[in-house]
Amino acid sequence: MGDDRSLEFDACRSAWTEALELTNGLPAKVPDRAEVDRLAGCLRGHVAALAGELGATLEAQSADTSERETARWLLVRTHRTLNEGPDLDHRAAAVHLEDLALNCRALIALCHQQVCAQL
After folding, report:
1. Phi and psi at residue 26, in whole multiples of 5°?
2. Out of the domains of life, which is the source (predicted)?
3. Mean pLDDT of 114-118
4. What does pTM read for this prediction?
């Protein structure tokens, strides 16, 4: 589990880092739409998988902690971002990509906490 998990986190980290670098110039500079769409597709898969994993972990926990409340808030925000999808407008699509990247980064942090707590 450790090596596979590290590779998965590394792939996610690489995707959100690339996305945040691409959207760094917003709002003044709107990135290329094809690149935004490519990264958004990659991040959507990572974000959906991480959200599912975190949701399942939360369901299995019995204690109601502040970390659990934070995770629930993040899951609601993440599901809203996934359901909204990218806009037709290039700038809005880039903002959506940025939201996916930030959600991915936060999900990785919470999933990593859960993995470390189980060790």
Report:
1. -65, 145
2. Bacteria
3. 56
4. 0.87
